[in-house]
Amino acid sequence: MVFYYVTNNFMKIAFFSTKPYDKLFFEQENSAYGFQFNFFETHLGPHIVNAIEDEKVVCAFVNDKLNRQVIEVLAQKGVELIALRCAGFNNVDLEAAKEFGIQVCRVPAYSPEAVAEHTMAMLLTLNRKTHKAYNRVREQNFALNGLLGFNLHQKKIGIIGTGKIGKAFIKIALGFGAEIIAYDLYPDQQLTTQGVNYKSLDELFKESDIISLHCPLTSENHYLINSESLGKMKDGVTIINTSRGNLINTQDVIKALKERKIGLLGIDVYEQEEKLFFKDLSTTIIEDETIQLLMSYPNVLVTAHQAFFTTEALTEISQRTLRSISDLSTKGITDAEVML
Fold it and tell me: How many angstroms from the chain centroid is the CA of residue 110?
């Protein structure tokens, strides 16, 4: 289960859900710190938490399960810090971490352009059907039937969440000449001067031709896209989600696809993704019938939590994570933005 170990006399860090690229980028940045790394391929959960020995820091990713049970064991093991190498923190019981005296930090902004660009790539692929055209031409089929798309120019794109990633996507969409409708609990006045129209969530649902999700997952917006909200949308609406899987009620979305309410659906995240994503299951029978059904629709595009996956983003993630750990270990403080 452990596939790499670095010897050092400074601070020990246990990494979970580790892939070869994590090892590569974190090792490159560690030359400035000299931490001792212990990499685990498996995700963090009750099944593996006791493998931690004398590490003071646990570095976790999006599908690691840091519930109360796990955090209590981490505290007993002497872990002092949970360092999330991601922006989202819905997989961490923050109250339990506070109770057991474990600090939590994250990477709130790692190349927001990476996620924004992938969002636009999914939208363009679905709309202009480039993935289907690629396969056709390889088979010497040069017909255009079935590849009809629409202009993004002057389309109304609804952006839910105008933080760093949402703003980056808005900049790209404005470049296409789209009209931007936005919803955020804290509207950005700078965006309004650029022509972005903040409206209520209901108005956004009603008016948007395309809806893109760029908000963190909270208890308040769990299943934000559901049968009720879908009923308020235009027939044939396009929905793109590169944020968190549980923003979408998958069963309600499948029903809307069958009823032609949703015209195009692009998801880089999925509510049951921890059982699938970041794994090679090409020789495995996948028992998740829901994802199999979604992938069978010709107007659905699924990518496996790939939006963040650029050289720039992985560099920023490793730099920011190790800097936070170093700050906390030597100074007792780090940037307020990264602490939870």
Answer: 11
Q: Is 271 annotated as catalytic? A: no
Q: Provide the residue type at 14 as one letter.
A: A
Q: Beta strand pairing status for 57-60 and 81-84?
A: parallel
Pick the catalytic residue from 29, 271, 273, 316: 273
Two tokens at 298? 């010709």
Q: pTM here?
A: 0.88
Q: pLDDT digit string (tens) for 214-226? A: 998 898 999 999 9
Report the largest interatomic distance among the alpha carbons of the chain, rounded to a whole angstrom: 64
Inter-residue contact 237 to 261 (CB < 8 Å): yes
| pLDDT greater than 70 at residue 43 | yes
* DSSP of 156-203: EEEEE--SHHHHHHHHHHHHTT-EEEEE-SS--HHHHTTT-EE--HHH
Cα 199 vs. chain centroid, distance in angstroms? 25
φ, ψ of residue 148 to 5 degrees: the values are -65, 130
Helix (H) or strand (E) holding 206: helix 201-207
User: Quick check: is 273 catalytic?
Assistant: yes
Query: Which of the following is catalytic: 85, 214, 244, 323?
Result: 244
By DSSP bridging, strand 2-5 and strand 36-40 are antiparallel
What are 91-124's pLDDT values in tens digits? 899 999 999 999 999 998 788 999 999 999 999 9
> Is 320 an annotated catalytic residue?
no
